Structures are given as C-alpha cells and as structure tokens.
Amino acid sequence: MTLVRERRHQQELKLFLPLPNPATDHQFCGETHLLPLLPSPDIEKLSDLEKMGILGQGGGGTVYKVVHKKTATIYALKVLLLDRDYGSIRKQAAREAGILKRVDSEYIIRCHAILDDGFSDMAAKSGGKCLCFVMEYMEGGSLQEVLRARQRLPETEISGFARRVLEGLRYLHGMKIVHGDIKPSNLLVNDKGEVKIADFGVSRVAVGAGDCDSDIGTCAYMSPERFDPERWGGGDGAANGFAGDVWSLGVVVLECHVGHFPLIGVGRIPDWVTLMCAICFGEMPEMPETTSPEFRSFVLRCLERDWRKRGTVSELLGHPFCE
Questions:
Q1: Per the annotation, where are the binding residues for ATP?
Q2: What does 262-304 look like in DSSP terms, one character per residue?
Q3: Which tens digits make up the pLDDT trace of 141-173?
C-alpha cells in the first residue's frame, strides 16, 4: 500500500515531453450525412487561421498546427478529405462531428469549431471537399510520443493518467458514447501534464445491446469480445461496447509500465492472427517483480477476457491504484 499512500498526497499527473484534438446538445445516432457545422465566437471561417506546420497525417486527413490571426491562440486543425470515393471517410466525419458537437468535459479534447472547405491545397489535389475540426492544441503531444521519449513511466504517473481517462470514459459512457479506440496515440497531453481523450473517428452512440462494432478501431487494443464476438459473447445481444474501452485502457496502462506493447513478445510482428491469438487465448503478460499489488490488481480487472466479469469504469475509479 506504499504506492497508494504516496499517490494520495501527490498532485495531478505530470508528464513532460520535449515538444514534437463542444458544446451543443445535438443528438447523434450514426447518421452518415454531414451535420450542421459548429461555429465559434472567435473562429468564423478558415481564413481566420494560419498554418504553422503539420502535426500528423493519416486516416484520410491531416492535422495542422494553426494560429488564430486575431487572438494568436494556437489550435490543432484536423482536416478530413471528403472525396466522393472515400465513403468511409465521409461516414467517419459525420460520426465524429456529431459526437464532438455533444461532448463538453475537462477530460475530453475540446472542439472549438467545425468548418467546411479545408485548406485549398489539400482539397485541390483531389477536387474534393474537406471538413475541418478546430481542436484544442495539446502542447505535450500524445502519450505515444511520451513513451517514445521516456520508454517507461512510473506507477504514480500511470495512476494519474489512468484516473483521468476513466473520468473521461465515465462521462462518455454516461452519454452512451463508446470511444472504441483508446490507445496511446489518442491520449493527448497538455502543458499542465493533463491527459485528455481524443479522436472520435470510430466512436459511436450505443443505441442498444449487442452494438459492439467489431470491425473498426485498432486491432492491437481491441477486446476479446470485439475480436471474436462468437466465442467471447460480443454477439449475443448483451454487449454494448463500454467494456471494450476498459480493456483498451488496461492494455495502455500495462504498455506504459513495461515500455512496449505488452500482449505479444518484443520483436514479434503484430499481424492479425498473432494479435487474435494473444488477445483471445494468450497467457496474461508477466509483470516485473517490482510491480505493486495495486497495479497488478488494476490491470487484471481491466484485462479480464469475459467482459461480463471485467471491471467497470465506476469500480476502477474506486480501485486503490487510482486513489
């Protein structure tokens, strides 16, 4: 219990990394059309912003670092290309826009505006249209970048970020939103050391039991019931996906502790078959001898293969490791 006693007297998580994404009440249940755009009092059009550089690329779009010309405020601008050949990107954009227009939490990355017609250089390449998300800029980058810089994190820091992610999941699940892609690159860090949940491209509103969506997300962080619904009960009409977010957090927590993806051996190729065998049938990863009982217990509650027995967000928020 030494770790727990120390943790209770510490301030919020502080992750340090050399520098390297709302507010309305719109209900979204998975429509694929684009929703009404979300303006900001300060950001009315894209010409209000000036590009400073590229933060990342992938998934049909680009994330830019931008500055608001009038206020000098820095934002992250996520630009999704809506080419007519990219049906999945259009669906992703509609889903993400709908969710971002609903959420407002200190544990979730804030969306300040949703605007159409992205930066002309990107749209002109394909003759398509763009949808842009003006997001809160997180100076510390992602948890993935933190791990690249530091390899491993101490338990006290892992405890702090795990609690923040759990608070974010409690908020999202309370709104019936399944994130569906909790992983280090989707957990962002600001200059205060606060971790926030980002990227809702594969998130969804759980409209009923059995809504598990096993075909989207990042395979390495998927839960057994998403990887193999028939064997692990994801397709029996009872699973709703919330437990899958808990599993993903457990993988992330363990990864931060051991310094590498924990479910397969170092150097093994994480192809689909390897990941499926490890997630659905593999032995529980070994933890260092120095691992505290509280940490070990927390991870085991997250990585319970039977989602019915897995720890819930509320239970884990009360777990000694997070106190």
A1: 78
A2: SSS-TT----HHHHHHHHHHPPPPP--TT--HHHHHHHHHHT-
A3: 999 999 999 989 999 999 999 999 999 999 999
